Amino acid sequence: MAAHFPVISRQIALTGNIGVGTPGSPSDVSVTTSGVWSFASEASGVPSSDSLAKHLGDRLDTVSGVTYQNASSSYDMTAPAMFPVYRLVCATSSQLSVQAGSSSSITMTDIGVDGTMTSGIPASGTVTLTSEINCAGWWSAGIELTKQTRPDRHEYRDFGSVYDGTVDETDYYGRRQSLRLMWEQVEDANVFLHRAQNSTYAALAGRDVDDPNGLINDANGLLEYFCRGETFRVYFAHGDYLTIRKQEGGRIRELADWVTEYPDDPRRSTVNLRGWKVV
Q: Do strands 67-68 and 97-100 pair parallel, antiparallel, or not at all (unpaired)?
């Protein structure tokens, strides 16, 4: 199993600290930010300057004896996980760990850490810190995209007469590109929180039962932030994305507007993400 594009990403805000240092002796480091994209990559696969991964790397760089190396860091879509994995490469002479801060800690699962993230002992002066679960703010189906359409939506107003059919007028305002993405057989653990917390369903999706992220139907899930009018990016490959929002006057309000049961397998769903405009 491995992750698949597209990845849908939104901005997230962090407030608080993480603990960084050699195992057993961490120091608090602030990772507060006003908003970075949960997933954002360059064409080469390295984290973009406005990505959560790059933000974390820059904060690691403030720790004495640690130098973050963004050019060597990456998003891994081939790791044995059905979600993106970031790998942060740092120059250091000792093992490195990232854990909850001793005070004012952020929620560690927001940055893809389930407990403590610990590097190996460096053999060549570098260590790699690898995310363990989904980060907050992104969604990926974990399977290949079934269908993508980008139809135009035309905006106009017209007038006419019921007495004279030759009398009419149209005010045309322009067109806007829409976006629809569809997947068949999406694992229910990537849709529903209660399925993500079930070990059987979580195993089918290649995720941990402690992973609260990467869902559609949840207080932090894709559907709620869509309905709130958040701006998203949808990455179709590294460095290749569209910026999208919900369409005006849309009627996407509940899960059934996007998700239906896959007819041949009740453990999986058909996901039809519609109602988006390209901005």
A: unpaired
Give 59-64 contacts, CB < 8 A, sequence gap 24+: 59/18, 59/20, 59/29, 59/30, 59/31, 60/20, 60/29, 60/88, 60/90, 60/96, 60/98, 60/129, 61/90, 62/29, 63/20, 63/21, 63/27, 63/29
The CA distance from 272 to 257, in Å, is 8
For the chain, the domains span 7-138, 147-278
Tell me how far apart the alpha carbons of residues 155 and 175 are, in angstroms, rounded to a whole number.
6
Please compute Rg for the chain using Cα positions.
22
- What pTM, to 2 d.p., does this model score? 0.92
Taking the C-alpha atoms of residue 177 and residue 244, their distance in angstroms, rounded to an integer, is 10
pLDDT tens figures, 7-58: 999 999 999 999 998 877 889 999 998 889 999 999 999 999 999 999 999 9
Nearest CA among 256, 46, 8 for reference residue 137: 8
Token pair of 247, please? 């369409």
Peptide bond into 6 cis (omega under 30): yes
Tokens of 255: 């899960």
Q: Which amino acid is at 42?
A: E
Give which of 189, 198, 237, 248 is closest to 216, Cα–Cα.
Answer: 189
